[in-house]
Each structure stands twice: as structure tokens, then as C-alpha cells.
Design a protein that fits this description.
By secondary structure, the protein is α/β, with parallel strands linked by helices. It is built from six helices and five strands, in the order E-H-E-H-E-H-E-H-E-H-H. The structure holds 4'-phosphopantetheine (PNS).
């Protein structure tokens, strides 16, 4: 039986921290679905389709393993997508105790709802300060985001 996991997030935009978690997840599971999910608590910078496209290009550019699928999900529960694709695990990158506090209730609810387990993954500490919200803020104010994002995202942000 294949071990399938979903790596969900806003990915607005994808950062080097995200790519690190995606890459590690792809080595742990047979198949990974990187799922772009609309987060109503955040005001978006990029349309969902653009986030998917930047993820696909970044994953290809970094030559990450071939068992990674990128998709988007905007209707219903995250665990509904998991059930649809036969995934019994979610992977969430954990940078700090703040992330643990934010993710723990969702992990318990997702397990209650559909038996989907959540794996908390510790990323490379070099990326512990990197977040999409930080990238959005620095980019909006004209700063250099090249240390935090893949080349495809950097190039795209230069164009818009
Ligand atoms: O990158 P983000 O914004 O921190 O990602 C948060 C996200 C999209 C993963 C989170 O908001 C989420 O899990 N949404 C799914 C909505 C859902 O199914 N909620 C009910 C159970 S917790």
C-alpha cells in the first residue's frame, strides 16, 4: 500500500522553507500532494493558479523527487481532499512554539474528522525565520527577498 501525504499551505508565495519541508516529505512518503489552500484568515497577494505555477516551477528547478504532485483545494474540508486521494497523513513545517500552538488544535480536529494524522516536521534551522508573510511585506516595500524564495518566485516578483 502506498504511503500518501498532503503538505497543505497558502504558499503565497512558496519560500525556501516550504521547499525544504516538501523535499524532506518526499523522502518519507511514496507520494506527496502539495496542496494550495485558500486561508480566509489571510489577505492574499497571489491568485491560487499563480501559486500553483510557482510551486511547480520551483520544484522542477530544484530537481526535487518525482513523487510530488501540486494541486489546489478551495471547496470543503482539507481532510476531504486527503480522503479523495487516499492520503492518511498531513505534513506541517514547525518553526517555533507559535507554530505548535497554531497547528495542534487543527491536527486533533483533522484526526477526529477523518483519522488523518499530522506529522510535525522540523525544517532546516536556517529557514526558521522565513515566512510567506515576511516575504510579502519585504516585497511590497521594495526590499530584496532573494535570500528567502526560490529563483522562480524572485523572478516573478521582479516582474509584477
Ligand atoms: O500556510 P498557512 O496559511 O499557514 O496554511 C494554513 C492551512 C491552509 C493549511 C490551514 O488554514 C488549513 O488547514 N485549512 C484547512 C481548512 C479545514 O479543513 N479546516 C477544518 C479542520 S482544521
Amino acid at each position: 500500500m502506498s504511503r500518501i501525504a498532503v503538505v497543505p499551505g497558502s504558499f503565497d508565495p512558496v519560500t525556501l522553507g516550504h521547499l525544504d519541508v516538501i523535499s524532506r516529505s518526499a523522502r518519507l512518503f511514496d507520494e506527496i500532494h502539495v496542496l494550495v489552500v485558500h486561508n480566509p484568515d489571510k489577505s492574499a497577494m497571489l491568485p491560487i493558479a499563480q501559486r500553483v505555477s510557482l510551486l511547480e516551477r520551483s520544484i522542477a528547478d530544484e530537481r526535487l523527487p518525482g513523487n510530488i504532485i501540486v494541486a489546489a483545494w478551495s471547496v470543503g474540508l482539507l481532510v476531504d481532499y486527503c480522503t479523495d486521494v487516499g492520503a492518511n497523513a498531513l505534513v506541517k513545517g514547525i518553526r517555533s512554539q507559535v507554530d505548535v500552538a497554531y497547528e495542534t488544535p487543527m491536527a486533533i480536529v483533522n484526526r477526529d474528522l477523518a483519522g488523518v494524522e499530522t506529522v510535525f516536521m522540523l525544517p532546516n534551522p536556517a529557514n526558521a525565520h522565513v515566512s510567506s508573510s515576511l516575504v510579502r511585506q519585504v516585497a511590497a516595500l521594495g526590499g530584496d527577498v532573494s535570500p528567502y524564495v526560490p529563483r522562480a518566485v524572485y523572478d516573478y516578483l521582479q516582474e509584477i
